[in-house]
Amino acid sequence: MALLPTSGSKRSRDRWWWLAGRFGLVALAFLGIGLLILNKTMPASIGRVRGHALDTVAPALDWLSAPVRGLSAIMDWGNSYLNARSKAQRLSAEVARLHLLNETNQSLNRENIRLKALLHVAEPAVQIVGTVRVVGATSGSMLQSALITAGYKNNIVQGQPVRDSDGLIGQVIEVGAISARVLLVTDTNSRVPVRIVRTGMPAMISGSNNGLLKLLYVDPDVPAVEGDLVVTSGQGGLFPPNVPVAVVTNVKTQEPVARPAARLSGLDYALVLKPYVEALPPPVPTSVPLPKLAPAP
Questions:
Q1: Is the Cβ–Cβ distance between 191 and 203 less than 8 Å?
Q2: Is 247 within 8 Å of 209 (Cβ atoms)?
Q3: CA 171 to CA 146: how far, in whole Å?
Q4: What separation in angstroms does the CA of 36 have from each of 26, 29, 46, 57?
Q5: Residue 292 pLDDT level (bands cut at 50, 70, 90)
């Protein structure tokens, strides 16, 4: 316990400060005890007092916290500006890259057209038979097909390719008067000649009846990689070239696995196309005239 100062003006002043501090502590202790007793005996009155105290203190706290809120808002604005600026820079770079790719593709396309014209390349145009609605699809273990609302009355015939805006759906296998059935590319009986866009190498896409596709006959010297886009090659004359068919998703299996480019589980409308190269009619046999025999002498 500290000793009281005993003499001198400085010691007297220190003594009075010491006594005031001790008295203040005792007064605060009694005030706290009194407030606890009042809170137990008259809770409603103490609640009103606390409410008035809060009403008095809240505006002061709000005023005191205004600079902190302002500084926080400025920092948030600065962070948002920096993030938006960096994002805008990334988007600008991406737009510039895509613009360059677009110009390159347009230049290559024009050059391709000129070369085909110089070489007199005969390339048939893709002809659309009609736009149809897909009204039903089956995905059983035996057959994966879809039903469309057009038949032979709408010039639908067997073998015609069917696609949507995303890619190849399949080909017509059965035709009625006002409806037809389409064999989906995911069916095990489906075979589509394709090429891998990245390498240009030919391959074959086959269904597997589980919603995915298998990439067959890939050149082992130029293997496919995940993310490769696979499009129709035009071989066989049925499917027009360059229609997206699938994207390779797994190359760790014996045969690379791909997912269809078209969303076959949510088909709504589809395009029915004419075969890229119409089949030639069988040759008509011509009778060769027999040589006339000379009359016997």
A1: no
A2: no
A3: 10
A4: 15, 11, 10, 21
A5: low
Cβ 276 vs Cβ 240: under 8 Å: yes
> Can you give the pLDDT at residue 1?
45
User: Whose CA is closest to 211, among 231, 190, 233, 235?
Assistant: 190
* Alpha carbons 126 and 162: distance in angstroms, whole number: 12
> 166-197 pLDDT, tens per residue?
999 999 999 998 889 999 999 999 999 999 99
Radius of gyration of the chain (CA): 43
* Angle at which helices 43-119 and 9-41 cross, to 10°: 90
Measured torsion, CA atoms of residues 203, 207, 213, 214, in degrees rounded to the nearest 10 = -50
Neighbours of 101 (CB within 10 A): 10
**Helix, strand counts (H, E) of the chain:** 2, 12
Cβ atoms within 10 Å of 216's Cβ, excluding its own: 13
Q: CB 208: neighbour CB atoms within 10 A?
A: 16
Least confident window among 1-15, 16-30, 90-104, 262-276: 1-15
